[in-house]
Amino acid sequence: MSISVKHLTKFYGEQAAVDNISFEAKNGEILGFLGPNGAGKSTTMKMITSFIPPSMGTIEVCGMNIKDKAIEIRKKIGYLPENNPIYLDMYVKEYLSFVGKIYKIPNPKERVKEVIHLVGLQKEQHKMVGQLSKGYRQRVGLAQSIIHDPEVLILDEPTSGLDPNQLTEIRELIKKIGQEKTVMLSTHIMQEVEAICDRVIIINNGKLVANAKASELQSDINSQVVFVEFDAEVSRNRLAKVKDIAQVESISNTTFLVKSNAKIDLRKTIAAYAQEENLLILTIRKEEKTLEEVFKEYTR
What we know:
Layout: E1 3-12, E2 15-25, E3 30-34, H1 41-48, E4 56-61, E5 64-65, H2 70-76, E6 77-80, H3 92-102, H4 108-119, H5 134-146, E7 152-156, H6 164-178, E8 182-186, H7 190-196, E9 199-204, E10 207-212, H8 214-218, E11 224-230, H9 236-240, E12 247-250, E13 255-260, H10 266-276, E14 281-287, H11 291-299
Parallel strand pairs: 3-8, 3-9, 6-7, 7-8
Antiparallel strand pairs: 1-2, 1-4, 4-5, 9-10, 11-13, 11-14, 12-13
């Protein structure tokens, strides 16, 4: 595994900012890291990048323990922090050359040119960073995080401040990078997670509350909603009394939204009811929750 976190905990005084979380991320995977403000996302990322030490637990990156190989691990990681701390009084090309020299990359001029093209900074490369818009500063931050061709890329709110066109371009770039590297991505934009992430982790109050593919979280059999249309009128009250059905919302006399909190496939329950009542089901489908609804359920 490129990233392996086991029982990771971070205390600030008596408060556990991160509370005994464990997860893994493999090569070629884009991992969405979600949670409300103050949940512990940035703290976790800072521990993985060895910027701050954990209070308890272990972190391994590319098979190396962060306690023993912190410097070596930093060479393997590209990191874009949330506040994007770049030098505003340097020119874009100059700044990326400076970062490249820190990492001692081979052929720095060629690599800087390549990265500038990758993140779309060709027209801005001769400007001072302080003269750029927030969106272009984010591109500079992303460029410095990949300048040394890292195996693991950790991005904290990487698309903050980008316009819709820039969003699309940077998302495509992250997807392309994620084909060969491990990418850990923190964001509050649910559409971004659905568009590019292979798997989603949600933390709340420092605790891990979900770890699965986005599609699996959205189609979770708990708290499910089914749309059904019968060929004849049906009593809403009668349908609501069927076992495992928690709520029935009438759309018309023949069409309903049926809700259940039971760990069953509600469609089978409705099909059995229709058979008993000699009804024909014209349409039945499971209404998939949005990732935003899933996020709210896990973090309320």
